[in-house]
Design brief:
The protein starts with 6 loop residues before the first helix and ends in an 11-residue tail after the last strand. It is 16% helix and 27% strand.
Length: 186
């Protein structure tokens, strides 16, 4: 016999779930209240996010689903107008810099139209490594891992994992061989 699991437990496990579940609707309403305070500079990151490292900064306006699935390392910076759909964990490593208007989207939908018609969805975790630089307007799709020190060009759509130290850009994002990582700033 399969034990009962709430829609929230299914969501957090990355399984199909109904976002219209009353418990999840309540969680989203609480998040919306926090976002209203935060975006008006009357709230703090630690009161809602899963973890907030030292000197982490998110410039408002900021938008997310739940907040409690977002884990920020030390010195993480998200510029204005970022959207983080956090139905499952999203981990952002120390020193990551994320440009304005970036969308980090862990929420996904079934490919089967009959399941979509039932309003079911699921999530796939996203991990962004240490010292990653993500240019403005980038979209990161569900289930992506971006390795340490990677650079994502502005306006990119990241559809596949990005290796550590790689520079990618475009739609879909593809590796660039420009030697940008090897340049020293003097």
């Amino acid at each position: 016999m399969i034990p009962y699991r709430s829609e929230k437990q299914k969501m957090l496990a990355g399984d199909l779930y109904s976002a219209s579940d009353p418990e999840l609707q309540h969680d989203m309403a609480q998040c919306a209240q926090w976002l209203a305070r935060y975006n008006n500079r009357n709230g703090s990151l630690p009161e809602r996010l899963g973890a907030v490292g030292e000197n982490a900064c998110i410039r408002p306006p900021f938008h997310c689903d739940y907040g409690y699935n977002i884990f920020l390392g030390d010195n993480v910076f998200l510029n204005f107008n970022c959207i983080v759909l956090d139905v499952v964990p999203i981990r952002i490593g120390d020193g990551a810099q994320i440009g304005p208007g970036v969308q980090i989207l862990s929420a996904d939908h079934p490919r089967d139209p009959a399941l979509r018609q039932k309003m079911l969805e699921f999530g796939r975790p996203i991990t962004i490594g240490r010292n990653v630089w993500i240019g403005g307007g980038t979209i990161i799709l569900p289930g992506i891992t971006i390795g340490d020190n990677a650079i994502i060009g502005a306006g990119s759509v990241v559809t596949h994992d990005v290796a550590a130290d790689a520079t990618v850009a475009g739609n879909p994002a593809r590796p660039l061989h420009t030697g940008l990582h090897s340049r020293q700033i003097t």
